[in-house]
Amino acid sequence: MPNARTHDLITLVTAIGLTPVYVGLLTSYGADEAARLAGAGLFCASHLISGMLFSPDLDVDSAIDNRWGIFYWIWRPYMWIVPHRHRILSHGPIISALLRLLYFYGVILLLFSAVDLMLAVLSLRDLSSRALFSRQLDELVRSSPIAMASIMAGFVSGGDVHILADYLVTGGKGLLRGLGISVRGYRKHW
What we know:
This protein is mostly helical. It has one domain. 69% of the residues lie in helices and 0% in strands. The protein has helices spanning 4-28, 33-52, 63-66, 76-81, 95-121, 129-143, 145-178.
């Protein structure tokens, strides 16, 4: 499997290549120029964030979770629960990227709940920041469907190019071995 630096390069190149394709898709659906421009930016940014911060390799102790700095601990339960290279949960198309996003959303909600609890204990506030966050996110989804579709499409594609690269390298090594060619010295991906 490619190492983290190679995966980053693949993510960057595919973001550059897929963004015009996504703009063409938005054009075919009749999006105006402002929506296409915003959609392109959101697609490209979420593709890069997905590939470089929300990588399928968050299920192992790797360079990817190190990028989270002091917040690396957010991904420890995910690492313990999700088996590495699981065909659906960690390295599966579409579902694994959405699972990582849903997991992160759950962590954010837990953190907001903890803050709410601390503020309630200290009698500083009655307002629920968790509920406010959820309402604002819901409003964003309802008011900007093209923006949300762009974010989701970029997020899924960013994870899927990582998975595709892993499978091409693994399958390529298997094909070469089947032809009698020995493959040695390839570094692990983390």
